[in-house]
Amino acid sequence: MINIGYGNYISGERILTIIRPDAAPTKRMVQFARDNGQCIDATSGRKCKAVIVTTGMQVVLSALLPETIAKRHNSGNVQEEGDLS
Q1: Considering the domain boundaries, does residue 80 fall inside one?
Q2: How many independent structural domains does the chain possess?
Q3: What is the pLDDT of residue 76?
Q4: Whether the Cβ atoms of residue 7 and residue 29 lie closer than 8 Å to each other
Q5: Most CB within 10 Å of its CB: which of 50, 54, 57, 65?
Q6: Quick one: pLDDT at residue 75?
């Protein structure tokens, strides 16, 4: 599980991509997900700084920067990659 801010967690296995919310195509994707009930707002009322797309094509909004979430995701995968014996 990866902390995506303010007590919210997501399964690292489910993350497909983590992107910034400021591009127009990303804004359209978020709006489409909201309209279809596929958007989970995990910002706790703060400004959205990252959009996480899951393998189930759900969109999760986070108030943490994409770099922060990616770093937390990668630090959890280091142990798995290191076990090559």
Answers
A1: no
A2: 1
A3: 72
A4: no
A5: 50
A6: 87
Backbone angles phi, psi at 15, to 5 degrees: -75, 125
Residue 81 lies in a domain: no
Could you tell me the residue range of the domain that residue 12 belongs to?
2-75
- Alpha-carbon torsion (58, 64, 67, 72), positive or negative: negative
| Per-position DSSP letters for the chain, written without gaps between them | -EEEETTEEE-GGGEEEEE-S-SHHHHHHHHHHHHTT-EEE-STTS---EEEEETTS-EEEESS-HHHHHHHHHHHHHHHHH---
pLDDT at position 77 is: 60
pLDDT of residue 23: 96
Residue 53 domain flag = yes
Mean pLDDT, contiguous 10-residue spans, the chain (85 residues): 93 95 97 97 96 96 96 72 41
